[in-house]
Amino acid sequence: MEIVLLLIAGVVIYFLYNTLQDYLKNSLHQNPQNTSFGFGNADNTPINFDNPYQVEDTWESKIKSNEFSILAAIIARVVWSDDKICPLEKQLLDEILSDMAAESKNPKLSKEELEEIVEKEKTPSVELDELCENYVALTKGEYKKRLKVVEFLFALAYADGKLEDSEQEQIIDIAAYFEIVNDDFNSIYNAFEKEYADEIEMDTQQARAIFDITDTNKLDKASLNEKYHALIKQTKQNIFDNKNINKSFQDTSLTRLKEIDKAYLILLDLAESQGQDVGKQEEGNESEGQDIKQDQSRKGWDF
């Protein structure tokens, strides 16, 4: 009986083996696209060379793709809320975008892309509450980071020396969406209000000293801009640096930033006035030269 069962099992195995061989030899079951490169699960969908990725990212998805792209769009709300941007505000914006690009773990998120987001968000494409909710979700457990962002927004808004109502409204809304505690918000608000209550008094000599320019140095607008950028970069606070997480702007950089900006505006006005004087002097010299040529030509006529 056992011999019969073994014979039957052998016949069955032989039959299955032959069936499998026939199946493998059947060209109808082979996919030349799959087997030519050895990838059995290759996608045989025809490629659309006009759009090889099939689905393009939308602008909204690009903004919401990263913690810093979202933050760039949020910052844009304060930047464009008063339809103007002063030199200090422009420099602070430039510096924080540089810090964000350096801090980002996404190698594709460059400073230029962050600048593009800020520029295009003059006309908002995503609701502020949605942006803030996404940012809160991405910074869960990082309350102090969001607090530093709110503090920076005040520095940005006060860059021209005055907090406009439109800027204040935007910052209040952002702080609320960021779930900032009232006491913390009021502390920042009061500190900036007190700091900017009085205008800095400064003369030309003090302004020159801040920019390390002697009386004999000729003031050049391009050189002033370069020095201004370097001083702001050296002085500003990187809000993403952990060593600054518990340090306020007043503790580290705010007063100095105000002094640099005041000195810059004084020296810029002086450079422009000197440039006008030089222009007038050159016009006078040119006119005098023409008179001399005319006199010389007249003398020639007298011979």
UniProtKB/TrEMBL annotation:
Domain of life: Bacteria
Pfam families for this protein: TerB
Coiled coil: none
Biased composition (Basic and acidic residues): 290-303
Location of the region described as Disordered in the Swiss-Prot/TrEMBL record: 276-303
Co-chaperone DjlA N-terminal domain residues: 71-188
Protein's recorded name: DnaJ domain-containing protein
Originating organism: Helicobacter cinaedi CCUG 18818 = ATCC BAA-847
